[in-house]
Structure formats: C-alpha cells, structure tokens
Amino acid sequence: MIFVTVGHQMPFDRLVRAVDKWAAAEGRSDVFAQIGNTDYRPSHIRYTAKIDPSDFRRYMAEADAVIAHAGMGTILTALELGTPILVVPRLGRLMETRNDHQVATAERFLALGKVEVAMDESDLPGALARLTGKRRTPTIQAQASPQLLACVRGFIQGSERPK
Asked: What predicted TM-score, i.e. pTM, was given to this entire model?
C-alpha cells in the first residue's frame, strides 16, 4: 500500500492531483491518501480528509511507501519506522505554504540520502520508480541516545560544555 499524506494545515491539491493521475496511469488500486480540507476529490485513489494520530502511525508503519509534503513530523516518523518516503515540498510561490521552508527541508534530507524528492509533479513518476523496492530500514531512533542526553544535562547544569 502507498500512503499519501498532506498534513493538516493547508490543502495540497497539486500533490493529490498528481498522485491521483499517476495511480490511474499505472493502474494502482493500493493508494490511500489523507487529503486534508479541500474541494478536490480524487477519482482513482481511496482517501479521507483527516486521520487521527494513532491511525496515522499505523498507516505509516503498514505502507510499502509514503508520499508526503515535507513536514518534519511525517519525515521523521517514516525514518523511524523505516518506511521509504517520497517528499514533495509545498511551494511558497504557489501559496501552498507561507515560504519555501519545505524546499529547504526536502533538499537537506535528500542530501543526507534519507528521502526521495519530487520538486514538482513531473518528477513524481521517476521518483516513485526510484522508491519502489527500497528496503525498510529504520534510520533514526525515537529516543535520544543516553550519550546525547548526558551531554545536554551537563550543558544545562553548567558542568560540561559541548565539544
């Protein structure tokens, strides 16, 4: 199953339309999307407007791949669960978000080799092809390491300075 999520703050019709078109062209019936508050209703994918946090995590864990906006919570959850993720950043110039912080996020995680990125809808098919068959490998932990916590505690208490 491919899970698509757009977050909840603003609609992201550009992404939903692109995935809907891709699913139709590829004959995919295994796509489920959280589409947010929008007037656009996909024709070729299953969808819901909202998902509660426990169901969101379950969909992320069960998915073979995730297609998402470049929200930090979504990216970090996918990396923690080891679910391959394709990030499509919202663009400020299209009024999908307030500025281009999602572009910066997507570029940084791409440079780290943690995500696939499609900067616009024409990149979606190629990026999805690269994502297909990627192994599920958790790349981050849900909790900070004991060493990091000890360093932060020491810094706060003034007994240790970061190196």
From this structure: 0.86
